[in-house]
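Box 3.1 A note on notation
Throughout this textbook, protein chains are presented in two layers. The first layer is the amino acid sequence; the second is a token string describing backbone geometry. Keep the layers aligned when reading.
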Amino acid sequence: MSVGAAGGLTGRTVLRARRVLRFAGYFVARLVQANLAVAWEILTPGSRLAPAVVRVPLRAVTDTEVAAVAMVVNLTPGTLTLAVHRGPPALSVHGMYAADPVAFRRDVAELEGRLLAALRRAGPPDHGDPADDGDLPDHGDRR
């Protein structure tokens, strides 16, 4: 293996590590926010709950990616994956605060996009949004 090849491998490894750390920071912030919302709901009278089951189309293509998305949805307080649909890939997600299904889908899609950017093989550095990875396939309208 030449030095140039090793340098490229190291660069890709560093890029992937950055993407994973970026996702971890985003997910920890999301977890804190969701835990505070659920705790507030428990401690205060009145209900801001708007439960719904929403079908969320996925950009994940492998079983591992779909399982990872379902797992991070389940780890987030106030959301629960109820079903995985294979063709086209989608999740049925129960949300405690899903009064606006379009906004709820957008939130789950953002979580998915950031996760996929962290999981997928790191390519050359891009200068756009790290969650908007150009190699992620789009499975149509997210409404």
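Residues 66 and 139 are 13 Å apart (CA to CA). The longest strand covers residues 79-85.
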